[in-house]
TrEMBL record:
Domain spans labelled G-protein coupled receptors family 1 profile: 56-305
Keywords: Cell membrane, Disulfide bond, G-protein coupled receptor, Glycoprotein, Membrane, Olfaction, Receptor, Sensory transduction, Transducer, Transmembrane, Transmembrane helix
Highest rank taxon of the organism: Eukaryota
Family to which this protein belongs: Belongs to the G-protein coupled receptor 1 family.
GO MF annotations, alphabetized: G protein-coupled receptor activity; olfactory receptor activity
Name of this protein: Olfactory receptor
InterPro entries for the chain: GPCR_Rhodpsn, GPCR_Rhodpsn_7TM, Olfact_rcpt, Olfactory_GPCR1
Transmembrane segments: 40-66, 73-90, 110-135, 155-179, 219-246, 258-276, 288-307
Length: 326
């Protein structure tokens, strides 16, 4: 997120702006620079990961669409979450793959900011929708008698719409302000995705207000949603501990296990990247951490939700006509 402005810029990783140079019209997104054989291997690996991510999340959407028994709020949010993940990886990975086979690795000014906007907007939406999914599970565990009357279809639809709107409006103003800043050459950005940190380093003039706005919005969306999720888990845990039967406790915990795993993967990688004490991460560390929440987490989400959920496994067997999913 825009918390990348927190990182101490390493002079070895980011080119110094040169005020005497003409304003840039494109950027060089360095990505990974290895020998050609390694580049081809990474291209194949990332392509396979991208295809598996889209296939896995697409399979969840198809299963939820075909199985009438899964037309519940929890699975409605899950289907929307899988739809998000498809677009989330598609906002960055295609350009990443193209750079593996490109000698110039250039991206236009408009292309950089389009990726920047969609990647951050979809990431922001993921923060909001994970909080909504936590709220749904909180109601199901702590208010089971009221849950069917509260979490009805129209409320679910409104929550999803609000998450989409907030996600795409949250960073709109800061991104527009950053796009209006003058950027001087050289235009080399040592990263795998379009990130604001290197942009501020390449600006001809400092913009502390814009950086502060970006930083504040990032803090609000990351920590606000994370603390909300954490609070819902604490309340749910207290409620589960009051359940007299061990079977009831196991069932309650199982409904939150998948969501907890996804939250841990997503927020864990974000906080390692942006909130760890060693803020001066190397360029390589920044790339690996970015890949984790941009590619690895969306790949694991279908596995987590399908393999840990008996209803999903049964629906997958029914839709795929296979008994190999145990």
């Amino acid at each position: 997120m825009c918390l990348s402005t927190l990182r101490i810029t390493d002079p070895m990783n980011i080119s110094k702006p040169d005020s005497s140079s003409a304003f840039v019209s494109e950027f060089i997104l360095v990505g990974f620079s290895f020998e050609w054989e390694v580049q081809i291997f990474l291209f194949s690996l990332f392509t396979t990961t991208h295809v598996l991510t889209i296939t896995g999340n697409g399979a969840i959407i198809c299963v939820l669409w075909c199985d009438q028994r899964l037309r519940t709020p929890m699975y409605m949010f899950l289907g929307n979450f899988s739809f998000l993940e498809i677009w989330y990886v598609s906002s960055t990975v295609p350009k990443m793959l193209a750079n593996f086979l490109s000698e110039t690795k250039t991206i236009t000014f408009a292309g950089y900011f389009l990726q920047f906007y969609f990647f951050f907007s979809l990431g922001t939406y993921e923060c909001f929708v994970l909080a909504v999914m936590a709220f749904d599970r909180y109601l199901a565990i702590c208010r089971p008698l009221y849950y069917p009357n509260i979490m009805m279809g129209h409320l679910c639809a409104k929550l999803v719409i609000v998450c989409w709107v907030c996600g795409f409006l949250w960073f709109l103003v800061p991104i527009v302000l950053i796009a209006q800043m003058p950027f001087c050459g050289p235009n080399i950005i040592d990263h795998v995705v379009c990130d604001p940190g290197p942009l501020f380093a390449l600006a001809c003039a400092s913009a502390p207000t814009t950086q502060l706005d970006c930083y504040t919005l990032s803090l609000l969306v990351i920590f606000g949603n994370f603390l909300f999720i954490l609070g819902s888990y604490i309340l749910a845990l207290l409620a589960v501990l009051c359940v007299p039967s061990a079977t009831g406790r196991r069932k309650a915990f199982s409904t939150r296990g998948s969501h907890l795993a996804v939250v841990s993967l997503f927020y864990g990688s974000l906080m390692v990247m942006y909130v760890s004490p060693g803020l001066g991460h190397s360029a390589g560390m920044q790339k690996v951490a970015t890949l984790f929440y941009a590619m690895v987490t969306p790949l694991f989400n279908p596995l987590i939700y399908s393999l840990r959920n008996k209803e999903m496994k049964a629906a997958l067997r029914k839709v795929l006509g296979s008994s190999n999913i145990n």
